[in-house]
Amino acid sequence: MAAKPLAGKVALITGASKGIGAACVLELAGQGAKVVINYSSDAAPAEELAKKAGAENAIAVKGDASKVEDIERLVKETVSWGGKIDILIPNAGMLPMKDLEHTTEEDFQRCMDLNVKGPYFLCQKAVPHMSAGSHIILVSSSVTAISSVMPTYLLYCASKGAIEQMTRVLAKDLGRKGIIVNAIAPGPTGTELFYRGKSEELLKTIATWNPFGRIGMPEDIAKAVGFLAGEGSGWVNGQILRANGGMTVGN
After folding, report:
1. Which end of the chain is more exposed for a tag (fewer CB within 10 A), N or C?
2. How many domains are contained in the chain?
3. Where are the beta strands (DSSP E) in 86-199?
């Protein structure tokens, strides 16, 4: 039997108990990686996902991905369990629907803490445990490339714009250590959070934005992440992969 492409690799994924994060856990575990499933509050989905991925290949670890002290503990527990970090995916995030007029200072701080500060310091704390050939996959959004974006995406877009710049600069910085840095930028993706509060009519409209006539699924994004986490992406560095079925093209 051929070896799985990520056999022997250790991955850490934040916000991994549901949606795109959970699909990434199953994709990487299916390719042979050992995966740490970070979750913020609800242990049940994370523990169930760990069982599904294979109890010997996945563990669930609670932690607030917006707090540096929790990030440090998460990295420490990952290294204690797996001995290293080969694949880092700072996936935890929030989608505040706030235009300029209705954004409070608290809104801004919560969003930036989880969507920007968390990934920034997770990279900082994890890099000492990552060797040449390791991969960091940051998470942006194709919303940053849509010209018709709604005003209520202002705060979210600001945070994901920061992630895209972080990707470009970290690729230059960490490339000297042989660490590869890219970002995945999903389009509309059929997660529980995405479907919440949307009418059937709206969902059909969103599907028409895509040349394939459908909304993406978490597994679509996870397969792209699987590529970025593997040896085949070794010469792909500092890039934003817009996994959206062609809804937007270019940068």
Report:
1. N
2. 1
3. 87-89, 135-139, 180-184
